[in-house]
Amino acid sequence: MSATSERNDAHLTSTEHARLAAALCEEKSAHDVAILDMRGVCDYTDFFVVATGQNPRQTKAIYDEVHAVLKRDRGLIPRSTGGLPEATWVVADYLDLVLHVFTPETRAHYQLEELWDDVPRLTLAASA
Q1: Average pLDDT by consecutive 10-residue portion of the chain (128 residues)?
Q2: What pTM was estimated for this model as a whole?
Q3: Per-residue CA distances from 110 to 17, 79, 120 (Å)
Q4: Which residues have CB under 8 Å from 95's CB, separation 6+?
Q5: 123 found inside a domain
């Protein structure tokens, strides 16, 4: 099932939003997509969705796809975004999830997963 085929569900939980955003990243050929469960350690969001594009152009394209589908199909727009001019690290705060899309060099530099290595990871797709 493609990520966009889920759009007819009435309401998604924050977990489902995170999985949908991750699936959309993968559909745009993002690499190393991860969902970090921040609920036990963070009071401003439930999940980080982290992905890598091969270059700034792909990084922006990944963000653009997630943004377009969440807006069109879910009526969700990020409360804030950052990093779009350079597109080496694009951040979009959707309240219940924060999307981080990096270039490989920027992801290696900031090591977000290592910073939060004690938080649980979600599988990208719900178990059948």
Answers
A1: 44 92 98 97 97 98 98 95 96 98 98 95 74
A2: 0.88
A3: 24, 23, 19
A4: 45, 79
A5: no
